[in-house]
Amino acid sequence: MKRLTLTAILAVALLSGCSSTEEVVPDVPPSELYATAQEALQSGSWTKAIERLETLDSRYPFGAYSEQVQLDLIYAYYKNDDLALGEATIDRFNRLNPVHEKTDWVMYMRGLTHMAQDRSFMHDLFSVDRHDRDPVPARTAFRDFKRLLDRFPNSQYAADAKARMIFLKNRLADYELATADFYVRREAWVAAVNRCQQIQRLYPDTEAARKSLDLMLTAYEALGLEEPIANTKKLIALNPS
Fold first, then answer.
1. pLDDT tens digits, one per residue of 152-199
2. SS3 147
3. Which residues are CB-neighbours of 74 under 8 A, at least 6 positions away?
4. Where does the UniProt annotation locate this protein (predicted)?
């Protein structure tokens, strides 16, 4: 958490006027600068788009393009994987525009940004699923999408947000399952049972919930608890893998 906080502070400092590169952007009218930024966005030249948009933001913070520049920056930062900068820009936009016609999109982008922060280096590089990594960004993304659905149930982004919440729920359940498995391997039987029960309570409709029954049975058998053993076997029979 400390590392993320420092990153966020750095992002705010960068947003206050420092460009993401050392290139000097020509001193041209804002309309021309914005047009070149749009061309870069359309072509997927995220770094160039960010240069132009950051320059517009610093030179004309209250200009005609101010709100749209911030919205474009949110998108460009996300596409360029500048996630801390994107999160800081979202916070800034919401602070300056508490009521805006594109608030649902901004909430959706917050969820996407936090979801992207959940990616692991090992997964991106080697396609290795490290579901035991810190799930804080995934939990935050889940809350972001839930807030979007609660506030804007008819948003055009609602369907995708629901699908992403299902994915995130399974991601969080898998993390809890990995933790329960860790306890079983360490023979921390009570901790394993508690974690398995938590999975079944919070994520009952996931594959992890079904798998947690096997771990819970192992723990109960190690503890010699006959009635819980019998009950768990019944649950396993009712929920075959």
1. 999 999 999 999 999 999 999 999 999 999 999 999 999 999 999 999
2. helix
3. 86, 89, 90, 93, 106, 109
4. Cell outer membrane
Q: What is the CA radius of gyration of the chain?
A: 23
Domains of the chain, CATH where assigned: 1-100 (1.25.40.10)
Secondary structure letter of residue 24 according to DSSP: P
**CB-neighbour burial class of residue 50 (10 A; exposed 0-12, middle 13-18, buried 19+):** buried
Cα gap 236→210, rounded to integer Å: 8
Tokens of 173: 């359940």
Positive/negative CA dihedral, 159, 160, 166, 169: negative
Query: Closest Cα to residue 54, out of 80, 17, 5?
Result: 17
207 Cβ contact list (under 8 Å, min separation 6): 170, 173
- Greatest C-alpha distance within the chain: 79
Residue indicated by tokens 């936009």: 93
> pTM here?
0.81
Of 171, 170, 181, 167, nearest to 214 (Cα)?
Answer: 181
> CA-to-CA distance for 114 and 128, rounded, in angstroms?
20
Burial class of 112 by CB neighbour count within 10 A (0 to 12, 13 to 18, 19+): buried
Residue 241 CA to residue 237 CA, distance in Å, equals 9
d(CA 194, CA 102): 43
